[in-house]
Amino acid sequence: MKEKNLKIIITILGVICLYAFLAVRIFPLMNFSLSEKMDVETRDFTRYGDLYYFNCISDFKVEFPPTVRKYRLSDKNPPLNQADLLTFGDSFFDVSFQKTFPERLSDTLNLKVYSYMTQDPTQANPFCVLNSNKFMNEGSSKYIIFETLERNVHVKFDTPYEVNCVSQEIETDPEHKVIQFIFKNNSEKLLATLLKRGYFFNHLYEFFVSARFKLFGYISPMTSKYTVSDNPWLFYSLEYDDIPGGFAYQYSDEEIGRYADNILSMANNMKETYNLDLVFMPVPNKYTIYHEMVDPNAYNNFLPRLYTELDKRHVQYINLYHEFKSSKDTLYFGTDTHWNKKGVDKALELTLEKIDFKNNLISQEITSE
User: What whole-number distance in Å separates Cα of residue 89 and Cα of residue 102?
Assistant: First the structure.
């Protein structure tokens, strides 16, 4: 009898393990198992702010507006070679619960605005995308707006971009597909998500971490700076730690000069190779703007110092820091890393003030005639 029960238990555990193995590799199975469903196109959780998911503590569980289809995935996003204006950015140009900056720009100017986004700062070389799409601009110059979050500047511009870069082709042979399936990237992270957010453990896990927070004040190190109130705020550790990109990191003049040199190099190569006028938009970290909620220490002044070096090199950029810092409006979400609609409004306003799109468009029409 004991041996029979043991076999049943082993069989049940085996089925569970097999299901977990397949679920982290087959998205419909994964999503079916989750208490809160992920977005089918982006495979992200969108119901609450992204910082909530680092800890799942109920005190920070603020429901967000319903998602809208991302502009870059819609029919409104034109083919690269048909665009009047190009935008390259990270998740700040791609939030799912409001119209994105590229879409707002397209609507405001009535132009075809191309949007490209990557959340991996090591894969942000725009020349790879331009070359792979055989981009050509034989008419008058066009603008390319390159957005990056403050904490990623050191990653994206520590070295010059390879101008002749082309996107690597994805292996499609059966053997490679099998290897990718078995040794799937991020499988450990997906398995952790399945355990935390699955039907069987989601509520239990949230109850446990919430009770632990109330009793002992423990919270994930990823969001260890926070405020709890009617409008709770969480901050992301990469924005305040003493590491490059963080609030407490002390940049040397040599580092900031190197970043500015490589931004200038990208601007020059964009102009020479594609007749594109670069407009650089470094978005301040949320912690940079609102650190005084939890931290009285002085800002390391990274963005103003970078602006000074860009001015010396005559690089066009959008100065969001001073406008954001002096604004009486709240420009970021409390439990999310990203800007809210007012933040996008301000960024759009500053961009339109900075760049003469109207005259640029008129010159294109004259050239085409």
Answer: 10
